[in-house]
Fold this sequence. Notes:
5-stranded antiparallel sheet, 3-stranded antiparallel sheet
Amino acid sequence: MDEQKETLRVGSAVRRRRRQLELTLAVVAERSGLSVPFLSQVENERARPSRRSLQRVADALLTTDVELLAAADPACTVDLVRADQSEADGSPSVRDLVRGHHQLHAIEFTGDHDEGREFQHRNDELMYVVGGAVEVEAEGRAYRLGRGDSLYLTGGVRHRWRATVPDSQVLVVAVADHIEAMDDSRR
């Protein structure tokens, strides 16, 4: 398969930045000199801004066109991530299962990791034990998970985990922290 340059969907980056700044489309339109309908089309990937228009949008969002392009999502909707071809050497490893800057974030942990490290994510998370066994501490309780078990944690839950069997494999799937998925009433 030939590697080809991906087309970037900058609209998603524009929307994320606008929402991060808590701005309306009308405010961005006023600051940039572009129309609200055009900005809406950009955010919904129905229009591609020229480089000059993108610079104007970036200025209105207190960033640069380069930063918006760096935060853009690839236009392709299918991305195959193959298993590591190297032999396992028994040491802990972490592998991203989703590349890039997306709404979904997935990581595979093999072996153990810093069991003293506590996690707290803004958005929801799912832990699935592919093989072995782990113990998770969350909300003052300990949960023992074996192969095939999963544990769902809502955003804001402090937790830590450790492998209780060598070479355990844990799949962690989460809504990315750059997405506002947490219910406002829980803040």
